[in-house]
Every structure is written in structure tokens, then in C-alpha cells.
Amino acid sequence: MSRFIIRRLIWTIPVILFISIVTFLLVHAVPGGPFDTEKPRPAEIQANLMKHYGLDQPLWKQYTDYMGFTRNPSGDYAGILQWDFGPSITQRSRTVNEIFAAHLPVSATLGVAALLIAVGVGVPLGIIASLKQNSAWDYLSMALAIVGVSVPSIVIGPILILVFALTLGWLPVAGWGSFKHILMPSLALGLSSSAIIARLTRASMLQVIREDYIRTARAKGLSEKVVIVRHALKNAFIPVATVLGPMFAALVTGTFVIEQIFAIPGLGKYFISSITNRDYSVVMGTTLLYALFLVASNLFVDVTYAFLDPRIQFE
Amino acid sequence: MLRKKSLFAVLAVLMALAIVLSGCAKGGATGPEINMNLNTEPPTADPSLATDTTSVQVDELLFLGLTDFDDQTLDVIPELATEWSVSADGLEWTFKMRDDAFWVRYNPENGKVEKLDKVTAHDVAYGVKRTIDPNTASDYAYVDYIIKNAYAVNTGESTDLDSVGVEAVDDFTVKFTLEQPAGYFPGIAGMWINRPQPREAIETFGEKWTEPGNIVTNGSYVMTEWAHESHMTMIKNPHHFDAKDVQIAKINWAMVVEESTAFAMYENGELDVANAPLADIDRIKADATLSSELYIAPDLCTYYYGFNNTKPPFDNKLVRQAFSAAIDRQKLIDTVLKGEQKVAKTFACPGIFGSPAEDPAFEGITFDPAKAKQLLADAGYPNGEGLPEITLMINTSEGHQKIAEFIQASWKENLGVEVQVANQEWAVYLKTVHEDSPQVYRMGWCADYPDENNWVAEVFHPIKGSNEPKWDPESDSAKRFMQLVEDAALSSDPEERARLYYEAEQILTVDEAVIAPIYYYTRVVLTKPYVNRTYAPLGGEHIDKWSVEGK
Amino acid sequence: MTKQESAARALASGRADAQGLNSENQQKVTNLWQDAIYRLTRNRAAVLGLILIVLLVLMSAFAHVVAPMHFTAGDAALNNAVPLWLTKVMPGHMETYTQISDIYPLGADYLGRDLLSRVIYGTRVSLPVGFVGALTALLIGLIYGSVSGYYGGKVDNIMMRIVDIMYAFPTMLLIILMMAFFKSSFSGAATPGTLAYEFNRINKVVDSLLGLQSGGMLFIFIGIGLTAWMGIARLARGQILSLKEKEFILASHMIGARDGRIIWRHILPNIIGPILVSVTLAIPGYISTEVFLSFIGLGVDPPAPSWGAMISDGAKALRSYPHQVLLPALFLAVTMFAFNFLGDGLRDALDPRMRGTK
Predict the structure, then answer these.
(1) Mind telling me how many Å the CA of B255 is from chain C's nearest CA?
(2) How far is residue B1 CA from its own chain's centroid?
(3) Chains that touch B (3 or more CB pairs under 8 A)
(4) Which range marks the domain in which residue A289 is found?
(5) Does residue A218 sit within a domain?
(6) Residues B320 and B469 occupy one common structural domain
(7) Can you give the pTM of this predicted structure?
(8) What average pLDDT does range A293-305 have in this prediction?
(9) Which of A233, B251, B412, C301 makes the best surface tag, with the fewest CB within 10 Å?
């Protein structure tokens, strides 16, 4: 097991390297730069700024500087090898590390809340649908699930605001800082994910309850409840756990639309704004952070397989 | 089950963390509070670096200038300066300063506002030089090019920062030496880029000097908290010389980007002031309560379409005039914009000194489909036949897109010309427009100080400006235009200046139709009835002059 | 070898067993397909989905006949106008602040253009986005996955590691970066001879083929297509890996069949089922990507009518004109429903384990 984990961790290195190279090339290929402003700056000022951020170096050098393989002569950052993601170019008073520190907890809180809703709603819906296959319950819960994926969060968000804040007056419209602020955005986020989970749960439950060991369990005279919860559900959860990995990574690193609509200071907007502002270090930072989260949560999911299904062993 | 419990634990910890991170530092001031929206995270609070309305709003409250503009009359009024005078040749401006303004710093440890040194003329000189210093890379340094040697130093021709024409004669007298006479200079002297700056804090904390706890300010409010992308808190500065007249004790700034969200917050009582979203204006106007809270204030900005004067068919002035005359501006305002904007016939908007915008004698190019058709035919393209493909480029934005769609339809209807609309995001768009402007492109301009020099000269001077329309500086019209705006800048006779600018505007918008002005902006704002407020057409809102009653 | 893969393989081999068994006898293969089609037609939801999709495709092809007006036609003076009946069924009191006009069956947008017509023409944006996304995913994914699975060993190892890496990319970020790149490099490019100009030209051809004045559809296609193939590649590879050891494939090898022929004649027919299911179920994702792109301003160019643009504009007007978002959102939801129903039905019909269940 530990050898497996170590191997996976080592594998992370080429993944991160490759992603960093591709992102770096892409973001530099997009025309326009971080210092293009309404009034064109005198060439000297432009040159000074470029120098300050090490953007006057050849591209490969900029990359190795950023990664921390080489040292930028003018920059004072160490490179991501030393967990220094460099300065933000457009928000001059902040570093990328500070941006992560300020906004990742917010996105993570929201993401975890949304994930709880997704699992809490999706799994029961899926189970009900699978146990009563082709009944009204099945159709109803699957219809609910499909509504969840079919209505974009761009629409769900404003509708929630209209209903819960403006009409009922139960919740604040937008902002961040209290428990009440979390409810609507996490609901809007969680609903679409819960739909995916519900459908997956249903499909894999349908498969599992036809397995021999379930038949055996029933034959042994175990109660239906025990059969479902102890035996079927545990195994049916494996494919669900597989999607939970990427879902976790995506939700925790922030989602632009929901953050925008509910004015949440999360990390999601940086994924977009850094690209439009050509804030190279932030683009790199957010991409790599996401990749790290994804790799880590996939590893976590793989490890949990062993707990869900004792038959599974790692080579 | 265990899994879920641990997730709950993680959630609880994260939530506590988030709340601690965002909820600490409650300022100690008591008194009325106001909830406002900054619309976005301010890119900076550094006066030298501010270029956008949000940053300028923050700086307006945190830093005092030598002068300020009266919200009503736009006259230059004293702030840190008590009086000023100009030498006979118009080159030396001397400002006497008051001696009771102090630097203050908010101490997050005990929540107190600490009183530091007095604000002196040295601080002014330091601030101005810091803006001009090329290492600061201020985007607005060009406004200071009127100051002696500022251009040379800022562009690196000279490295002698001390040669810049600003000096502290004594602790409370500051003297500016200019390159050439400029009657509008007192307005520039008070701009955010020229405000006194705290040298010690800047040198100690570097780029982090604007963070709460580090930042040293002298304005009517003190920043106590800046939760990036989330909110900012300011409390009244107890050591401000006018502190007794400042009514509102605390400003809670939200940073809500989405206009519809901000407006919902306003309706729900979470904000006291909000912009009216375009989609809701008709409903607001019809609603008894909301319409009474609505106010449409003029804004010193102009929306225009520029033509690339070298790209066919817009290398022909008749075509440019035709396209300008085929825009039904009033209908655009009535049906798409709905904010009581004014039809623009000049580049500079009303309220700008020297602008003929309100001169009835200045006709400008007005909507006239028959004439537009005729002009196009005269240019050799009857009914648009033979025209090359035309692209109208805008920067990505819902508002610009709606306007572009309207004008696209307008040109099709009135000229029979199909125009492609393309959009690029801001960073690329700026590069495109500067380097190789599209045939037709969208732009806007807002006043930095209320004088035509800031408009026709600084924006469209084909040599000194960035010359986005690629107006040939060798052409007779451009030569005449340059002559006019240069003469006007040098002149100190208001009537003569107005006359020169009149002709310059005539060349720019009518005779040559280098650009097609479209409308003068307004701000469509809602304010809760318990707020007594002013409207600042220039710079940031003067919340120190507002009050809240019976909230 | 990770668990994820072995689990997938276990699952796949179960399916392949059944299919492999059938493949031994050509007669039975047709039976399997007939059986699948039979079961699909018995699944009411799937049939409904299929009918809806056909209707949508027809609507898109004949938009100029079906729609009451052209999508650019309209009078700005009638902006946001609504027919009388709508004010009675919608919440709020639209009649107090907007014009009543029965010219438009379902109201007008902010420029006085017919909403219904724009939604109908909008199928020319959303459906191509869905189909082209699916087609690209299918082409690249199937070829990539087949090659990787069929050759196995080192080739497989390297090719799958590349997919793993691509998977770790934030997909949205990649699409946004590419869209930013395409839009800023190519749109409006006017210098003949350059690559940008050629791209721009092809894009215009695509737009006019779709009957849209403008749109930049090509760039959206590329952006979505390039990020959509990884899942299919994995799936195809897993299926082939378990199939290629089967007796009938070995037998083909023995009688000297070429690799290409084996893949084409023997392997593809056996794996196409699950892949078809997966592609069908992915289409709604591509369509909603367009909605997201519109929200962040990287969607189609005006005046091309896209559901994404209409939804993100409409959501902002939700308070005043709720119908402006409901109409495109409804069309979008119906389309998503249709593809989901069809995909689910296909899965049930093609999964041998589901045989005997009704």
C-alpha cells in the first residue's frame, strides 16, 4: 500500500511538469500582456516593469525561473520548487501565495458544503431509484436529477436569490462571512453535482444488487436493510467515489459563476480574471494548484477503494 | 459514517477559519454607518498607481489633495492648500498649505487611529516625484508632463528626479514650475497622483505599504480592513481637521461585481447605494418607491466609436461622416441605454471647460439617414455597393455588445451596410487598438480634470497622443488641429481658448469625422431615502460630506 | 496498476464476455443489436428523447421556415415588449413597466427582436456545439484509445500516461485559454496570407454554413473538441484491452488478418455500444460549456443567437423580465433531457446484464 502511494506521488512530478509547461506556453501565446493599459506606457517604463517581473528574459528562462530551477536576477521570488508562486503582476501589492491563503479557505468551505449537499441528496435519490426501478419513484428521482444537471447555475443562482432572499427574506442576497451566506451558493453548486451522483449511484446499485453475493446475503436471511446498507451500498459506492475525486478538486478550488453571482471572495474568479489580465504567475499558480488537488484527491479515492472493497488490493 | 463526520469536522474548521479571517478587526468608531459597493476589488490604493474609478474612490477618502473639485460647480476649491498664486509668466505656481493636517495610521492591535507627523510640502513634493519616477511605473504620469522635466524623467531621457519642477519652499509652501503656462493647473495639482505621500511607510513596506496596519494616510477616513475581493472597512479619521463635520462614522464597502446581485442587495437592504442595472431600469422607473430613490447624475465621460483613418473605406472622410450620421443616437439612448444619456456631438462632454457641447451654434453630425446615404453615394459607394468587408471591434462586455448590436442594425437599416461585430477581451483589445486599430472601434474617455486639454489634446493629438485613429500628422487637417490645441493650451484667455477648442472639435468630429461621438454618460444610481448625499462628477464620492438619518 | 483501471477492466470484461460469446456466431450479433433496438423502442423515455432530438435537429435545419422572423429582425423601439397573455401568467407586473405588443408570440428581447425566433435559431449554435463536440471526442478518443489498447505494452503505457496528464488539467481553464488565444489571435484578422487570416476565413465559412451572420463557431468547436476526447480514449482502450485476448480475435490473427482490419471489423463493433452511450451522455456537457463561455464573454459573437448568451443576459433580467431567461433555459433543459434520456436508454438497451429486465 505504501509503495503504491509513493509510486503515485512520484508520478505527480512529471504530471506537474508537463502541465506547467503547457500552461506556460499557452498563456504566453495569447496576445496582449499584463502591462497593456489604456494609455500606452512609454517604452522605458514598460521595459522597467518587464525587467522587474523578469519578463525580459528569454521564455525558457522565465519558465525555469518560475519553477525555481534557476534564479531570476531581478525577481525576488524563489520559484515554486520552494512553494513560492511568485508575485501577482496585476495586483501589485499581493503575492500568489497570499492570494491562495486568502481565497482558498473560502472556496474550500463552499466546496465542501456543496459536496456534502451533493452526496447527501444524490446518494439517497440514487438508492431509492434503484430499489424501486422503473417505478414512479425511479422516474421522479431521475427527473429531479436530470433537472439538476439541465438547469445551469447561471439560472439557479438568481432564482435562489429571488426566492430565499428577496421574497422570503430568510437569507442575505450575497456576500461572505456567516453561515447564512453559505447556504444558497452551496445549494446552487451542490444540486448539479448531486444529480450526477444520483444517476451514478442508481446505475451502480442496479448492477451490484444482481451480484451473487447479494443473493447469498439475502439467502442467509439478512434483513433487506442490512443487505442494502452493509453489502450493496458499500460496493455500489466505488464508481461514485471515482467521480468524487475530480468533483472535490473542482469544487474546492472555486467556481467562477457561483462566486460571481453570490459575490463570494473565492479562488474561482482568479481562474478567469488571471487569464483576462494576463497575470502569468496567477494563471500558473491556479492551474498547478488545481492539478495538485486533482492528483491528491484521486489518490485519496484510490486508497479508499481498499476500504470499500476488501477484494481490492494494490499491486 | 465516519467519512461524513470527518468531512463535517473539516467543514467546521474551514468555516471557522473563513469567518475568523474575514470577520476580525471591527473598527472602534461609533455612529452612523453606511453600506456601499466598490463594484470590484480596487486594483490598488496607491495614489501614484490608481487609474480606475474604484481605486480613485478609495484614494479620495484616504488622501487629501492640495485642491479638490466642487461637486456642483466643478470649480477648483482649496483642500490642503489654503491659497495659490501664479507668476506673471504663468510658469510658477505656489501653493500655501494649512498646517493642521496630520498623517495617521490605524493600529489593528488596539483599534486606535494613531496621530503621526504633520503633512508638509515635502510630502507633496515626494508624492509628485514618486509618480513621475519611471520606477513607480504610474499609468497616469503623463498628466504631469506639464510639470517641468517630468516628461524627460518619466521617459528615461533624464535620470535626475530632482530636476522635476516641484519643490518645498518651506514646510507649508510648495512650488511647481511648468513647461508652459497652463490655466488648468490647480485642478491637476489636486489629482490623486499628486497627493502627498508617506515616504517612511512606502520605503519601509515597499509594495505592501497599502495594506491596513502599514498604510499611513491623511484623509477624512482611515482604512481599517481590506479583505481582498470581499470587503473593505473605513472609519472616520478622528484627527482630520474637519472631523467634526464628518457625519458618517463607518463605511462598509462591499465588492460586488455582478450588477444584478448588487441591486438585489440594495432591494434587500444590504446596500444603501447601488447602480441601476440596465435590465431593471424600466421597472425601477415604474415603481413608486424605487423611482423616488433613483437619481440620474451626469458623468464626465463620452462614449465614442473611432475610425481607422487609413483603412478603406474609412480613409475617405465622406464614408466616416456617413457612418456617423447614420447612427440614431437618441433612439439608442431611449431604447437600449435608458439612463437619460445625452446625444453626443462633440468629443468633450458638457461641463468640460472649452467644450462646445452645449453651444447651440455647434451642430455636430446629427442623425440624418438621407444625408448619410447621400454621403456614402458621394464617396463612391451608392447603397453600400462596392464597400469592402467592415469590422466593428468592441471589448468584451454585455453593455458594449448591446450598443454594437444596435448600431450594427442601424447601419444596416440606414446605409444598407452589413458590418461584422467582433469582440476581444480588454487586454488584447487595448493592444489591438493601439497598434493596429480596427476599421471601427469602441472607446470611452472620462475627464481627469475638467478642461478640453485633457480631451482633444491628450487623447487625439496625432503626435503626442497615442493616435489610435491613425490620423496622418502630415495632413492639413491634422496640422491645423495640432496648431489649435497647442495654442489653446498656451493661452490664458478663456474666450480665446474656447474659440480654439470649438474649431478643434469641429475638425475632429465633423469636418474630418475622425471619430463618431455617441453619447455623454450618466450615472443611474439609487440611494436609500435615509442617506443625504452629494454626487461627484469627477474623482471619488465625498462621503465625508454625506449623512445618514433615521436609518 | 491502479485499482481504478482494474475495476474498469473487470467491469468491461464482464460486458465483453457476453459480447464475445455472441460474436462467435454472426447470427447472434445481429440478434444482439436487434434486441438492443427492440429494448430501446420499448423504453418510453428513450424514445421520447430520440423524438425530441430529431425535432430539434429539424427545427435547426429549417429554422428559417419555423421561426416567425429572422433572428436579427426587430425594432429597438419595441425592446422588451411582451404579449398580453404573458403578463398574466408571469410573476410581477410587467404590464406596468413594459410595452404590450402581440407581434411577438413570446415577447421581444432588449433590442426588440423576437425571442421565440432567436431561441429557434439558437439550435444552430447549441446543437452543432453538442454534435461537433461529440464527433471530435469520438474520432480522436476512439482512434487514440484503440491504438493504445490494441498495441498495449509500452505504447499503451505512454499513451495512457499522456491521458492521465491531460486529465489533471482544469478543463475549463484549458478551454478558456484556448478561446482567449483563438479570439484574440484570429477573429477579425484581415491580413491575407497569414495563418490567422486563414483561420478567420474558415471560421466565416463555418458561420455561414450554419446560417449565422457571425459567431466564431469554429473556435468554440476547437476549444470543446480538443478537451473532450480523453474520457472516450480511456473507455475505448479499456474495452479493447479486455477484448483483444478473446478467442475470436486471436483466431483472426492466426488466419493473418491485418491489424487495421481486426480493429475495424472485429473490435469496433464490439465496443461501440458503451462508447455511444458515453458520447450521448456527454453532449449536454458540451452544450452547457457554451453557456458558461457566454457568461464569461467568450461565447459567440453578436448578433448570432445562442442559448448561452440569451440565458446569461436573461438571468440578469430575471427580476424584470423572467420570461427572457425561462424560454431559452427551457429549450436548453429539454435538449439536455432528451440526450440524457436517450443515453440512459441506450445504456440499458446495450448492457447485456440488463437483459430480461423490463
Answers:
(1) 18
(2) 56
(3) A, C
(4) 1-31+274-315
(5) yes
(6) yes
(7) 0.87
(8) 82
(9) B412
